[in-house]
């Protein structure tokens, strides 16, 4: 099972990249996470560019989502919302609507921030946009607050309750791919 991992943060030392790696480490056997690093290559969404074919970076994003069994997004929070690059990627992935690469795709959203609350607003916004685009978004929350001090040297989460939340969340995602639960209409 292939899970496409996207970090909403581009910076090298990103806590959200670390969180994605911790999620990858918590996956059950048979599932693997492949990080998608294309956010910075995407142009700003422009309907005039969204023709057939779309810009190459956009086509790569859409193909990567299509070929994945599920999505795992780790997002920071910028000014109480979603980082612009990540929202831009979701906007590109949402088209053509309604038959886009996201439709029906199981998706888990997690997040880390250096504030107290672990990017919960950004996570909620990402869930809302993914749902609107047609993805099958899990309700699991993994809010990693005070991220500067949240990870051990080996990249694992220090807090046992967060480790449990993360393990439960990725296990639910894998289960959702293996045996989808009917979505509410
Ligand atoms: C932030 N940060 C932040 N944190 C938060 O909890 N709520 C917020 O609204 C914001 N806003 C914000 C805006 C901008 C432009 C930046 C650069 C940062 C702090 C943020 O949580 C922190 O920089 C994280 O470390 C970013 O995630 P990565 O890069 O470590 O994954």
How would you portray this structure in words?
By secondary structure, the protein is of the alpha/beta class. It has a single domain, classed as Rossmann fold (3-Layer(aba) Sandwich), CATH 3.40.50. The protein has 5 helices and 6 strands. Strands 1, 2, 3, 4, 5 and 6 form a 6-stranded parallel sheet that branches. α4 (120-133) links the parallel β4 (106-112) and β5 (136-137). α3 runs parallel beside α4. The protein starts with a strand and ends in a 7-residue tail after the last helix. The mean pLDDT is 96. The chain binds ligand FNR. Ligand FNR binds at residues 9, 11, 14-16, 76-80, 112-115, 119, 147. The site of ligand FNR has 16 residues, from α1.
Characterize this entry briefly.
By secondary structure, this protein is α/β, with parallel strands linked by helices. The chain has a single domain (2-178), classed as Rossmann fold. Helix content is 36%, strand content 15%.
CATH superfamily: Flavodoxin domain
Gap from first CA to last CA:
26 Å
Sheet of most strands: 6 strands, parallel
What CATH first level would be assigned?
A: Alpha Beta
Query: Can you tell me the number of structural domains?
Result: 1
Query: Any idea what the radius of gyration is?
Result: 16 Å
Q: Count all strands and give the number.
A: 6
Q: Uncertain spans, ≥5 residues at pLDDT below 50?
A: none
Work out the oligomeric state of the chains in this entry: single chain
Helix/strand structural class: alpha/beta
- Architecture per CATH nomenclature, i.e. the level-2 architecture: 3-Layer(aba) Sandwich
Q: What is the overall pLDDT average?
A: 96
Count of individual helical segments: 5
Percentage of residues in DSSP E strands: 15-25%
Secondary-structure element pattern, one letter each: EHEHEHEHEEH
What small ligands are held by the chains? Answer: ligand FNR
